[in-house]
Amino acid sequence: MAKPGAFLPAVDLRTSAVATDHLREEQVWVIGVRAGKGRGKPPKARADFTATAVAECRLTIEADPIPGISEHVNLCGWPTDKSEQKAIAQFLCVRSKLLLNASPDQANG
Amino acid sequence: MTAFCPSLEMFGFHNAGVGVSAEAGALRKSIMQSVDHYLEPRLDLLMPEIEGLGTTTEENQVVADPETVGAAVRFAYCLPRFGPLPEVSVDPDGEIAFDWIGPSGGKMFSVSVNKQDRLAFAGWFGEKSRIHGIEQLVENCPPEIVRGIRKATHSENGRVR
After folding, report:
1. N- or C-end of chain B: fewer Cβ atoms within 10 A?
2. Which tens digits make up the pLDDT trace of B81-118?
3. Which of B59, B114, B132 has its CB closest to that of A87?
4. CA of B124 vs chain A CAs: smallest distance (Å)
5. Distances in Å between the alpha carbon of B67 and those of A5, B42, B113, B114, B116?
6. A83 and B110 in contact by Cβ < 8 A?
7. From the CB of residue A88, how many other CB atoms can be counted at a distance below 10 Å?
């Protein structure tokens, strides 16, 4: 299971995510490598969740293409109350599926 | 000879009433020393984890400021002495989170601490059993948080993971 903290918003009340509906599996991992360039290493895992789960939390998905990641989106509409944010993050965590990177040592992308 | 029956209150560090023998007092002291001995390793494991959140080894990693680390340390000292140690991490907003995951992974409880000793907690114990709220850390761990930790870490048969 993914960690709920991974879903929490930043101080701007937005959570960064990637829309993967029309992507092949390997394309998703390539995007993960690009997104993690600042960390200097590829992602070990990712958490997949549906737009339905986001809507159940009363959050919205806003397109936010960035250089190299045209599929980048933000989850918006977070409450300002931190405990409510944590409750939503736990909900998304339960609704998500954790997928491990089968080739974490590859840094293609 | 005095028969001594340890009670749960003792492990909560409450003083027993009057009327106990010297032998009972010595035995209680010995038990208290044992409990302290057990407690110290727990904090020895947790403190470096918390203090390490104030430094970074990765680019773009969120780092907790010293005031938030101090608040997290104060909270750690108030944690109940039962159950597994929490996982600690830094939230995207810089607060420090303490996470407990249940035995089967289906329950979780989390507390985020900020520099003002504000405790924001949330618990998932099932589809129809969730809690969240705000507490202020004063002296002891707020009862609501103790209950949340217990509820998340105890298995269906009441045993601790």
Report:
1. N
2. 877 899 999 999 999 999 999 877 789 999 999 999 99
3. B132
4. 7
5. 21, 22, 10, 8, 8
6. no
7. 26
Helix then strand then coil, in percent of chain A rounded to 5, is: 35, 20, 45
Which residues in chain A touch residue B107, judged by CB atoms under 8 angstroms apart?
none
Tens of pLDDT, residues A1-56: 788 999 999 999 999 999 998 888 888 888 888 777 666 677 788 899 999 999 99
List the single residue in B60, B108, B132 with the smallest CB-CB distance to A84: B132
DSSP β-bridge partners for residue A63: A73
Predicted complex ipTM: 0.85
- Encoding tokens for residue B139? 């002296």
CB B137 within 8 A of CB B146: no
Place of tokens 């780092």: B63
Of the candidates B77, B147, B73, the one whose C-alpha atom is nearest the C-alpha of residue B113 is: B73
Q: Which chain B residues have a beta carbon less than 8 Å from that of A83?
A: 120-122, 132-134
If you measure CA to CA, which chain B residue comes closest to A84? B132
User: DSSP letter at A109?
Assistant: -
Size of interface A-B (CB pairs under 8 A): 72
What does the alpha-carbon distance between residue B44 and residue A21 come to, in Å, rounded to a whole number? 46
Q: Which amino acid is at B129?
A: S
Cβ burial of B62 (10 Å; 0-12, 13-18, 19+) is middle
Taking an 8 Å cut-off on Cβ atoms, the answer to whether A4 and B108 are in contact is yes
pTM of the model: 0.80
